[in-house]
Amino acid sequence: MKTVILEDESLRDGLQFEKQVVSTQKKLELFNHLVRAGVSRIQVGSFVNPKVVPQMGDTDEFVALVKQTPGVLVTGLVLNGRGLERAMACGLEHISLSVSVSDAHSLKNVRKSYGDALDSVTELIRQAVQAGIKVRAGAQCAFGCIYEGVIPEQRVLEALESMAGAGAAEFNLADTTGMANPFQVKELTTKVGQAFPEVGISLHLHDTRGLAVANMVAGYEAGVRIFDTSAGGLGGCPFVKGAAGNIATEDAVNLFESMAVDTGIDLEKICQVAETYEQLLGRNLPGRMGRVLQVQKTCEG
User: Fold this and answer.
1) What's the rounded mean pLDDT across residues 228-243?
2) Which residues, in sequence order, are CB contacts of 90 under 8 Å at separation 6+?
3) pTM of the model as a whole
4) Most exposed among 60, 85, 164, 169, judged by the fewest C-beta atoms under 10 Å?
5) Which one from 90, 141, 145, 237 is the annotated catalytic residue?
6) What does the pLDDT read at residue 301?
């Protein structure tokens, strides 16, 4: 049977900029709910300054609690040298590192130009690989930037070439501003696959313009088999005004099930995870399938 992997990022991208600081114990409960639903790849946090992002202040402690979970790839986001040191110290075996291929976004995000940021990230990838850590290297704003406009494909390919040379095992193409369209996604991912056949590709798609699911299908048709999602559709980018969250994990599960593609995730259980997030945060989230199942149950009753 055809399969895909969904990396749930609700514990990192989803909670990172919520006003409410979620306790480590509550995060552990959410993590266990995700595991019981069948999620096999979970980004659990980012190694950032806790004074700047208090939601991620317990990442080291949390990783120690969950990193040995059987059947689950536990990963975290690293942004700088200090973050890499922390990831190494807590024994994480897989991390994500990324660079924005937009100068304007890079300056807002990390206060470095694209070129300087790429040099820094490439060196961090090299250090991580030498330490035995598997690295996913990301290109933020790969499909466009609201501040800079169209990003040349050649710039994306050059950035990926540098990161592959440093030892990256997987590329992550991120539609950070939600500007991508299906034709663009299919074209770029196809070119990346042809240029780097030895490196896996994943997609990180934001739903700012309502095209994320269509872009996911386009990526699948181009050969992508790993997609970032977030239970309930939590997430966004604080440096992009109006950026929506990621594709809801439950909506992605439904999409692939309808295409006879196995995710390994139980739809009803992942909808329950999204509902738990809604109760925790006190608001409805963008994910659709939880409400769809509720209506179906009402009709069946």
Assistant:
1) 73
2) 60, 63, 64, 67
3) 0.95
4) 85
5) 237
6) 66
Q: CB–CB of 43/7 below 8 Å?
A: yes
Domain CATH code at residue 90: 3.20.20.70
The question of whether 141 is a catalytic residue gets the answer no
Question: How many structural domains does the chain have?
Answer: 1
Domain span at residue 19 reads: 2-300
